[in-house]
């Protein structure tokens, strides 16, 4: 790198890249004629509803069968969103008013929001240096009112599930995997979402696969699956014969909601699902090449740890800076080099969102926070100190499946250039 090359773009130097990185929409970036053609078939068949129509195309069923086969899990259910999937999963587990659910401090608002929508209350566990749920912090937030744990692999990085599952087994807790950001991630050879009692997926716009919106619930438990199906479809179970299940309405039915996936969404996702392996392999290769080059050029830079590096989908490169102030300068300088970088969720734990922190809901009574818990649920800004510390100084750079080797080289050179200038 020459002296001229080393001058930061933010200071008037030449940018490491002549154009910005592709937008951070992995699935959307590979949408093509296939998705359009399959969606058109649904429209031409005049049958956009999944359970009946004029000329059924069975797109949602096809998606569910593809997911089940690839994930190696017997039951998959398409729903309207991952938030809906979380609510369906919680209700399948019987979670409700008077229950607490452990949620990681580093997650999107939808995770604790779904707990509240299910009439339960989230309690927050800290993260470890993977920025995922810290198994060693579970004991701190456990009491006899806690009924479940939600594990969230953030930005493609698998959660350390073995100790979480062992903890849950010791204490009689259920485990939900919220795989919204990490479709295709694995942990010790098993797909994320298939390890806990029930898993949920997102197909929203910026996810690994997308139809703009959409979600799915997966499980190996036939009882949980039946309850999930019923809750997502007003208490009905229309396809019992498909699963070889005979479940009388008068015995097993209960009131539910409408979270049914449309055939249009299913059609797009059938074609998206076919592309998952290619998307993940490209991101993994790009991320590995960038990380290796950056590590060689900045040997003192710390990267986000992974509980299973082989299972990380490589959708984001996480770099841990020595301080929040340095992280801010690093981000500003990288973006000037046309290398997208950011703090996740503004660098703050989710419980600091005002609606959560102040326990505000649409209900005048503050329901479900008004439940008289024996151990009151109180949120404090410093209650998860590692999340407070690490989230404010972990810089993420999204890795697109559209990158080529030249892009990877330019990105790595730009990160090294900025890092050296800042003395990292």
Can you give keywords for this protein?
424 residues; alpha/beta; Aspartate Aminotransferase, domain 1; Aspartate Aminotransferase, domain 2; 2 domains; 7-stranded mixed beta sheet; 4-stranded antiparallel beta sheet; 15 helices; 36% helix
Description of the structure:
36% of the residues lie in helices and 13% in strands. The chain is of the alpha/beta class and 424 residues long. It has two domains: 9-25 and 277-347 and 386-421, Aspartate Aminotransferase, domain 1 (Alpha-Beta Complex); 33-275, Aspartate Aminotransferase, domain 2 (3-Layer(aba) Sandwich). The strands form three sheets. A seven-stranded mixed β-sheet has the order 1-9-8-5-4-2-3, sandwiched between helices. It has a four-stranded antiparallel β-sheet with strand order 10-11-13-12. A two-stranded antiparallel sheet has the order 6-7. Helix 2 packs parallel to helix 10, helix 3 (82-92) crosses helix 4 and helix 3 crosses helix 7. The protein is globular and about 75 Å long.
